[in-house]
């Protein structure tokens, strides 16, 4: 299955798909992506059949639950104050990044209101 992920990694990378879209167009980008994903799935299927004959996948819920519990124990638990502070910092950074666009949108809205106030209703 790893072969499939290695082959489709480039086809499922959004920046690469956007670059392909800009270079060769929408139709060719879709054709490229469908071709790469399709061929990757076929290669993965053939690889699984050749390397693991008779393999039957199954879902072991107890093992999954155990792995989730182990992962939960390994995560860093931070105090609530630090979590809130980090959340505020992230929101401030988002607002800082969006601020020029919001100012431009406010100017356009103000200009539209000025035009509407001049019109006789």
Query: Which sheet architecture does the biggest sheet show?
Result: none
Helix content: over 70%
Whole-angstrom Rg: 26 Å
**Mean pLDDT figure:** 82
Approximate strand percentage: under 5%
The shape is: flat
Protein architecture, described:
The protein has 121 residues and is mainly alpha-helical. It has two domains: 1-54; 78-121. 80% of the residues lie in helices and 0% in strands. The longest helix is centred in the last third of the chain and has 39 residues, at 80-118. The protein is flat.
Annotate the secondary structure layout:
Blueprint: H1 2-8, H2 14-24, H3 26-51, H4 61-74, H5 80-118
Helix pairs in contact: 1-3, 2-3
State the main characteristics.
121 residues, mainly alpha, 5 helices
Quick rundown:
With 121 residues, the chain is mainly α. The protein is built from five helices and no strands. 80% of the residues lie in helices and 0% in strands.
